[in-house]
Amino acid sequence: MLRWILGGRDAQSAVEKSPVLCIGEEQPKNWFTELQVLKGHFDIVRFLVQIDDFRCASAGDDGLVLVWNVETGEKLQELRGHSQQITAITTFTCVSGDTQHTSLITASSDRTLSLWDPDTGNRVQTISDLQSSVKCLLVLERLCVWLSGGDELCVWNKDFQLQCQRQNHSDTGITALIELPKNCVAAAMDKEIVIYRLTVSSDSSLSVAEIRCLSDHQDNIRALINVNDGLFASGSHIGELILWDATEWNILAYEHILWEESQADTQAEIRLGAPKPSEMSIQHLTTNGKLILAAVGSGLYVYSILTKTVVAYRKTAHDSNVLHTMLLSDSELMSCSEDGSVRMWEMQDLPLPAEPASPGFFGMWSFGRSSKQTGPPSKKVMEMPSLRMLELTGDLIGHSGAVQMFVSFGAKGLVTCSTDHLLILWKNGERQSHLRSLALFQKLEENGRL
Q1: Which PANTHER family match (predicted)?
Q2: 129, 186, 219, 377: which one has the fewest Cβ atoms less than 10 Å from its Cβ?
Q3: Contact 339, 319 (CB under 8 A)
Q4: pLDDT digits (tens, 9 = 90+) for 397-410
């Protein structure tokens, strides 16, 4: 049964302590209260990408790419061609005169790249016999080219013709790519961020050159995102969050998310060991240009770009690692986890800001700056009067496996994918009931019964 778990909870309390609402009971406005299970994959579904206002594509370890109508839940196309798991997927929109068409680009462990037409399901182009699997894709629509990253960086035009490439020398290859100003791109490789510049010659040929290597992270980079035209951010396996200047590539802010033993733990005879690296690892970053939301282990961390300080966090937001996040507004956010849940959160002011909150409620993180920073170290949680709490406002329970990611279609609903091979389309029950009533009245009117 679909259910909503509502209300805030202590960081260490069990989910079952919260009130539960079922379908048919009074529901908070604009919350997802209906679900539709979408079946079609027969292995882990890892990727979702929005095609337009009413379609999305899903892909995963079965090598399939499925196109869905999020308004009806109908499977529109089944794109078959890859023999192994999909490792990356993105959209590629080409504008021709007054018309534009969105295609899909996929990469697979079978060492092929494919261009698909989601309208017809046809594979338009394919590149095979690559030297290695592609781990990430980046479309530069302004230059009408796209890049693939793996053991090498390749630049392709819209006709899937190789324009130029650069060989990489790292253990893991390129794991993430983002676009930067001045025809530059940033590539995450192990502990480093490599800046490349694309140059267009007079004969319209392209070349790519490495111009900078940023080696400020102490561990492998797990997340790399654009913040705005002038900033980008990266997160590492040991909880380092770095804010970068997008044109000069200098560090503007550095936060290291650390565990801190409470006084009770210090006095205990039996102490717990140091946290595992995965508990501090930044698995995902997202931003709205004002805030950065980081998935850190099983917790959530909200960082203000303006003040360069933490504004809210929750050490235990889920029972397992958080895999994907989204900022719905300046005060609302969403996260999904290996524990199979998708949770809604709201940043709220402390009820008694003059009184310090207990460490048990907020968890035990401390925040510090890199030794490279000249400014004062970040204040500890107890000394930050502007810190807000993350209050749990909803919990979507439907998947039986780890929820890999989700895509929001606003009022049309939310799509989630999981290791249970399923997609779930979540919708606002009140809105859906209203739409069904309208459709019924229209049908009755057409039949002359009104």
Answers
A1: WD REPEAT-CONTAINING PROTEIN 41, WDR41-RELATED
A2: 129
A3: yes
A4: 999 999 999 999 98
